[in-house]
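[agent] plan:
  1. take the single chain provided in the ticket
  2. run structure prediction with default settings
  3. attach structure tokens to the ticket
  4. add a short note for the reviewer (M.T.)
[agent] executing step 1
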Amino acid sequence: MTGTLLILNAGPAVTIQDLGRPNRVAQGLSEGGAADRLAVFEAAAILGSATVLPAIEMATTGGTFQVSHPTRFALTGATMKAAIDGVQIAWNRSHILMPEQTLTIGAVQSGTYGYLTPARPIATPYWQDSQSAHLLAGIGAQLSAGDTLGLGDDPTPDRVDHAMLPSDRFKGGTVRYVAGPQSDLFSQDTQTRFQTTHFTRSAQANRQGVKLDGGAPFVPDTPKGLASDFIHLGDIQMTGEGLPYVLLTECQTIGGYPRIGTVIPADIPKIAQAPIGAALRFECITLAQADAVCPPDTAILSSLRNQARPCIRNPKDIPNLLSYQLISGMITGLDGNDTECKKQSI
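[agent] step 2 finished; step 3 output follows
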């Protein structure tokens, strides 16, 4: 540990998250990890990291932070108001926080989950190969005022700031899913009606799942009392009243409600980030189509690294230009809060 991050204040649902603990459903543990996995991949790409780094996940509201050593960090996921010492900074890009400066992250502006990812890796204990808090399973805890997190070394402390355009996933839209072993419990008419119904994201939502409002109940053609079975991230369950829920990263691992299908991994961020009242509809695709749009993690990070772009400063926007050390009359054009990076941020 070579540094610390001090939390001066924190919202009601602030936790440490990474990619979670996949493939442990048989042991009774859902995978957990970031509600929007794509956001932590974006942070790694912006920071130039070869691997995904643990992040501070913030649901609807952020917090106030200080560091003991100069620390690069990325802001990704749902856009939130952010400032360093009262000066607004852009989202979807990297910045540097110096000791004695204060980073303030406020209310969400679009989406649900925002992410603060230090380039100095957060140094908290691993459990089952992950640092993620999984509150339903009793792993870890919410972060609160006064908490101090250890930080490791930044392998590329001199990397210039980078930014990228995020995918459009913060206002609902069409969500793709595949049929599963229980889809045929629903009549063809019910399945068609499910795909043509315009839902809205309910206020009943957390890291376990999201309730969908809209349409008449979706009742399966089976007797009540279906035997419990394994369930997992992305499953679309119908309650006993026929109301749909999409299961998210901290869902239970066993359930008896029938499932009409499973949202593909590529579209889980769209469900997780949908704000209250966002319009959602569902499209059933084949397994082959799902495989084509759901690349492995290594391919996701590689693609995003190619999309990250250095921030180019316009000398006209540098108020203290003459204070820079000039070498042969030249200064670097890389760094700072510049016009080009603002174009890449929302």
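[agent] step 4 note for reviewer: The first helix runs from residue 37 to 47.
[agent] ticket updated
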